[in-house]
Design goal:
- The chain has 13 helices and twelve strands.
- It has 350 residues and is α/β, with parallel strands linked by helices.
- It folds into three domains: 3-46, Orthogonal Bundle (434 Repressor (Amino-terminal Domain)); 60-174 and 307-337, 3-Layer(aba) Sandwich (Rossmann fold); 176-305, Response regulator (Rossmann fold).
Length: 350
């Protein structure tokens, strides 16, 4: 059905139908109701291409997921403890706000150009970027794009230095320092002094911040940092398994270990079990994310909960305001985190 037919059935002009579809304010309510009644009766859907050509939006947001590492894992995006919950949250909150969500996975730094291409092709009104690495390609996108962008997990000070002069960017981070600090405080209160750490990639903002706060919190408590207990997991399961096995084979373990995400914490738990090391009797473990599986494993995983839905809501709301022209420049939000205490931690018995 074309807009001309809607106009005929409603007894109005074609331009009136267009004003109703595009939600112009200068349409009498009685006329709007008459047109909407016909639209609903015949399930009319406006042509998106025509809306774009007319200078209207697409009501679509792009969700760009960076999955440059862990290439051998077929579940590295949708089964990922971070990507999976965030993807669900964006789709749910985006749909609630009336946006379609176009999902695109970035597998190499060079594919960052697809972000700009999707905007320039006018397929989306705003974009959400998650899992970004600090590299020249993403910096090029940030510095050359003046379209509405929400970036999850990035240093706002770095963006401020390079963003487009007419850029519209919202940065959303979780309070990772608070989360790591709370982990150290709780472990110390349980008598742990030898605490290890499985770090993520330092090319990510969260990877850098979580390790930096681990070091600062250990120093604050006067605890020794032992290099053999700091493992490079890079947020990846198979690398974590190898690093943990290497530490076990050296014959010495910390009494507790914190992982920069749940994916690595769960990999460490599996590796310890494979070597007949009991959790939490022999070693306590804490993760970061509170992924859906964290409460289901045995023993259930103590972890720092990131409020994915709150982050998604803030991203979608900020983009909606930017698209409407009600916000511009650089915005920065930080969402609170919570330590969820479960069965993978206990008092130090040594």
């Amino acid at each position: 059905m074309k807009s001309e037919e809607i106009a005929r059935l409603a007894g109005v002009s074609r331009s009136t139908v267009s004003r109703v579809i595009n939600n112009y304010p200068n349409v009498p309510q009685a006329t709007r109701d008459k047109v909407m009644k016909v639209i609903k009766k015949y399930n009319f859907e406006p042509n998106v291409s025509a809306r774009v050509l007319a200078g209207k939006g697409t009501d679509t947001l792009g969700l760009f997921l960076f999955s440059i590492y862990d290439k051998k894992n077929p579940l590295r995006v949708y089964g990922n403890s971070y990507f999976g919950p965030f993807l669900d949250a964006v789709v749910d909150t985006g749909n609630y706000k009336g946006f379609y969500i176009l999902i695109h996975t970035i597998y190499t730094p060079q594919e960052c150009r697809y972000i700009y291409q999707t905007f320039s092709q006018r397929r989306i009104d705003g974009g959400i970027i998650i899992g970004t690495e600090s590299n020249p390609e993403i910096e090029t996108v940030i510095s050359n794009t003046n379209y509405p962008l929400a970036i999850i997990d990035y240093d706002p000070d770095e963006i401020k230095k390079i963003m487009h002069k007419d850029g519209k960017i919202v940065v959303i981070n979780s309070l990772d320092r608070k989360g790591i600090s709370k982990c150290i405080d709780e472990l110390v209160s349980l008598g742990h002094k030898e605490i290890g750490f499985i770090e993520g990639r330092k090319t990510t903002y969260s990877g850098y911040v979580r390790k930096d706060e681990f070091i600062k919190s250990m120093n604050r408590h006067g605890l020794e940092l032992k290099n053999e207990y700091i493992l490079k997991g890079d947020f990846v399961r198979d690398k974590t398994e190898k690093e943990v096995a290497k530490m076990i084979n050296k014959g010495r373990l910390p009494t507790a270990i914190i992982a920069s995400n749940d994916e690595m914490a769960l990999a460490a738990m599996d590796t310890f079990r494979a070597h007949n090391i009991s959790i939490p009797e022999d070693i306590s473990i804490i993760g970061f994310d509170d992924s859906p599986v964290a409460s289901l494993v045995e023993p259930s995983l103590t972890t720092v909960r990131i409020p994915f839905y709150t982050m998604a809501q803030k991203a979608v709301q900020a983009l909606s305001e930017m698209i409407k022209g009600k916000a511009e420049g650089l915005l920065h939000y930080q969402v609170d985190v919570e330590l969820i205490w479960r069965k993978s931690c206990t008092k130090n018995k040594i």
